[in-house]
Predict the structure.
Amino acid sequence: MIRCMNNINFKSEMNRQGSVLVLVLIVLSSMTIISVGLAYRTKIEMRIAFAHAQRMQAYYLALGGIERIKVLLCQEELTPLTIARICQFSGNAEEENLFEQFPDFNLNEGKLLIYSLRDEQGYLNLNNSDPASWSNIDGISQECCASILDWIDEDDDTGPDGAETDYYQRLEPPYISKSAPFVNLKELLFLRGVTRQLYIGEDLNRNLFLDDNERDGWSQMPFDNEDNRLDLGLVDIFTVYGDGKININTTNQVILSALPGLDSQAAELILSHMAGPDLQLGTDDDMYYTSSDDIANLEGLTELQIALLQEYCGFDSGYFRIFSSAGLNNTFKCSLMVTVKLEDSQPQILYMERFL
């Protein structure tokens, strides 16, 4: 009897110890899982913090590019001739030796900084340019043109291929059509048929030339479709500043060709005359336009084309656009677009947008 009781007590003790062991194993396993989870989360948070730090560094580096261009604007007495010259400017910090002015700046980290100056009035005005010119530009669909018109008109009647409040109310989140002029270019992203890729385009440095990093797909910014063709964005075509007159000295062939009554041949003639005998813009023999008489004296254009140029084009500007893109480890991480207005010879920032 006593022996039987001892066996029972022994088995009970073994079961108890076994239960304790299982419980300990469960606790240890849980703690291991929690520790691994915390370590993984810490690793992810460190990566996020590092990426954020790099984006912030690139942002402030890009602001430096904007200041570089503001200095350029302050150095010039703006006339139709000087505006035409400086609004072709594109540069980078390495070529201008800007990084070398800061001994503690580590170039081995692959820092990048490119910047350019363009004339806001070299673009088509969204609010008061002729809509007939919009659809003449490759990449701008009829749907996009119609959506722009519906966005700014005062009624709520949807035009063919356009969109009004009834369309936007079905989106998530819903919103209404503005029925008022554009205040900034970013409003275009609210429009039907406008994607971010269409808005930004592929021309990161805005030099109208297909660079290597603009044909490499998704390897680095800007992302592109690898079709070996430079797709301009809506930001390369439109503005919301100025009186609607296009500065003939600072616009490009794409926009000139799109003006009603003109074509690529007329645009080439206008630009080749402006480039002078060497056919290179930005050189000493350039022949910029300063008045309507200069346009009237152009040979090779019809009287109608001359009259249209005098109607659509101007020769001066007070608004300027700065593009500045910066990167670390040879990868662009921040791209800014800034609009400035000169007041008392000092550039005042009116608008800033970050693309990346």
